[in-house]
Design a protein that fits this description.
This protein has a single domain, classed as Creatine Amidinohydrolase (Alpha-Beta Complex), CATH 3.90.230.10. The chain is about 25% helix and about 20% strand. Strands 1, 2, 4 and 5 form a four-stranded antiparallel beta sheet that branches. Strands 3-12-11 form a three-stranded antiparallel beta sheet, with no helix packed on it. A three-stranded antiparallel beta sheet has the order 6-10-13, with helices on one face. The chain is globular. It binds 2-amino-4-trifluoromethylsulfanyl-butyric acid and cobalt (II) ion (CO) (2 copies). The site of 2-amino-4-trifluoromethylsulfanyl-butyric acid has 13 residues, from β4.
């Protein structure tokens, strides 16, 4: 794989652009948090995020019309056993105990992408759902911790897989993190499983997402007839957390850090 295929911030202009994109994406998740309550539809969550992204942030929501068939909404809302790419709908209304991943990607006026997601609960989550979400967030941070220059991509995947499987959960394999800069989905593919010291060597300035999808049951998924929604085959719960980061010689920079995260340890 040629290095030209890989999303690398080549200077201060790119880094500043990604900081702004990341902070804008993070602010959408902060804005929507109080609205994630029993009774709200995922359609209304989409509309609120769309309006905020366009009017307050002066950005474009990257999912809207993305791909083939074109994704019809501005955010992904993945409920309970939905692994990722759930489509907001007026017929999906949150109930007490539901877990929901909201995945936001914005494109700034300068053309930079910020991509981030987190888990929310409507009302009171079950013990399992809370534990799955917590372990998945820990998987994200354990992966990010390995994103230092000189390490390999496999170090990231291994850290995630090890933590998930020690917790008796499983790692979804059909989707991965991705290079990102002025392109939504670039090289490299950032697998959430793997072996230490294998795969591409990480270099300073590489920008990519880490976005583990972890299942309470088996890892297998299927895609619904809408050609987007991925669900667990066994219909057990799934969780996902995502950040957009940049490799440095020291601790990676997390572009999409929110105010509720004091450091990458949380
Ligand atoms: N935000 C997702 C990711 O993390 C991609 C969503 S593409 C969409 O890569 F079309 F489903 F929105
Ligand atoms: Co992503
Ligand atoms: Co995303």
């Amino acid at each position: 794989m040629g290095i030209s295929m890989v999303a690398v911030a080549v200077g201060e202009k790119d880094i500043q652009g990604m900081r702004i994109a990341g902070q804008k994406a993070a602010s959408v998740l902060e804005m929507i948090e109080p609205f994630v309550q029993p009774g709200i539809s995922t359609e209304e969550l989409d509309q609120r995020c769309h309006q905020f992204i366009v009017e307050e942030l002066d950005c474009v929501p990257a999912p809207l019309n993305y791909g083939s068939p074109p994704f019809p909404k501005s955010i992904c809302t993945s409920l309970n056993h939905v692994v990722c790419h759930g489509i907001p709908s007026s017929s999906k209304t949150l109930k007490n105990g539901d877990s929901l991943n909201i995945d936001v990607t914005v494109i700034t006026k300068d053309g930079y992408f910020g991509d981030t997601s987190k888990m929310f609960f409507a009302g009171q989550p079950s013990v399992l759902s809370k534990r799955l979400s917590n372990i998945t967030r820990e998987c994200l941070y354990k992966g990010i911790e390995k994103a230092t220059a000189g390490n390999k991509l496999g170090d990231i995947g291994h850290a995630i897989q090890d933590h998930a499987e020690r917790s008796n959960f499983s790692v979804v394999r059909e989707f991965c993190g991705h290079g990102i800069l002025k392109v939504f989905h670039d090289e490299p593919q950032v697998l959430h499983y793997g072996n230490p010291d294998e795969g591409m060597r990480l270099e300073e300035g590489m920008c990519f997402t880490v976005e583990p999808m972890i299942n309470a049951g088996k890892r297998h998924i299927k895609i619904l007839p809408d050609q987007w929604t991925a669900v667990t085959k066994d219909h057990k719960l799934s969780a996902q957390w995502e950040h957009t980061i940049m490799v440095t010689e020291g601790e990676p920079e997390i572009f999409t850090l929110r105010k509720d995260e004091t450091s990458h340890k949380k």
